[in-house]
Amino acid sequence: MHLHLLLLACVVLVPESGRFVRAAIVVNPFRPLPTSARLASTMQQVDATGWDLQRAPSTCGGEPSFPVGKQTLVRVKDGSGTERTFIIYVPNSYLQRNGSKVALKVLFHGLNDDCGNFLDGTGFTEHVDRDGYIIASACGSLGILGVGWNAGTCCGFSSPDSPDDFAFTKLLVDTVAAGACVDREKVIAVGFSNGAMMAEVLACRLPHVVRAVVSVGGVVELRPGNAEGLMECAREILENPSGCRSSVLMVHGKLDNIVPINGYDFLTSTTPTVAQGGCRNSIIEIVYALNQGHVWPSDDEFSTTEYAYEFGKRVFGRY
To answer: What is the per-residue pLDDT across 201-243, written as a single tens digit (0 to 9) for each?
Structure first.
């Protein structure tokens, strides 16, 4: 009963009919190459390999090491020597923050979506331009089903640590923090579908790195999956030595037949997050879109992008 009351206090019902945002469609054709291979010919690039180890933490007193005012493809190498990429956007308004630490928003696209497309389609750059914080859109790896994230039992990766997308997330955050003035207490992960699954399991596994999470059309699917995967999430949260609890916003369509709520026990699937984070120590919100499917809900009455932005403000106070 306590859990039901707690959830009722945090649930927001969204009755309107949504529309597809181009960046939000999960059913995309199989792509033989990661998006970064195509972006390389059209976007300025920065090789930031080793920045996380070789550079001292930013003093926040000078220019960022990344280009300002343009999207830039950043290349790094993980611990296995595998090259990974992400797009970073440091707005001109970042320079007007006068050396103060800013938030970092990390985006995770859906299966076979595009890190550049997801960055542009969600529309977060409008907020970034206004507020002066930094956004990075991570590029997924090629698996059996296409380009996506190795977040657990979905989607097309047989090995639990190849690729290691948890290590990549930490590397991304460390790299951006080495090249710009980032407040590590204001790192928020935002994902859709397979990317939302990635964001949710970051709240399980790396709450000390990612302090807030927005999941749109996703579920917790840590290996071995189902109830055991949910218990693994709860265990990792409890045993994390930092004691951190990520704030979580979950947006899910009732008519979603790709990652269906009705295909899972909704209350059970949120139990680990609510019980370990809860409305006491962190913010937990659930937006239940009654007439929407597997989309990024957006119309004249409700915008997932705007709601996610405001959620970040409620968690952080200021970006």
So the answer is: 999 999 999 999 999 998 887 786 667 777 888 788 888 888 8
> Which residue range forms the structural domain that includes residue 251?
2-316
Report the candidate in 309, 312, 307 with the shortest Cα–Cα distance to residue 18.
307
Domain CATH code at residue 131: 3.40.50.1820
Q: How many structural domains does the chain have?
A: 1
Contact partners, residue 53, CB within 8 Å, separation at least 6: none
| 239 class by beta-carbon count within 10 Å (0-12 exposed, 13-18 middle, 19+ buried) | exposed
pTM of the model: 0.84
Q: How far is CA 23 from the centre of its chain?
A: 14
In angstroms, rounded to a whole number, what is the distance separating the alpha carbons of residues 74 and 138? 10
Strand order in the sheet with 134-138: 11-14, 284-289, 247-253, 212-216, 182-192, 102-108, 134-138, 83-89, 71-77, 45-47
Give dist(CA 264, CA 226) in Å, integer: 8
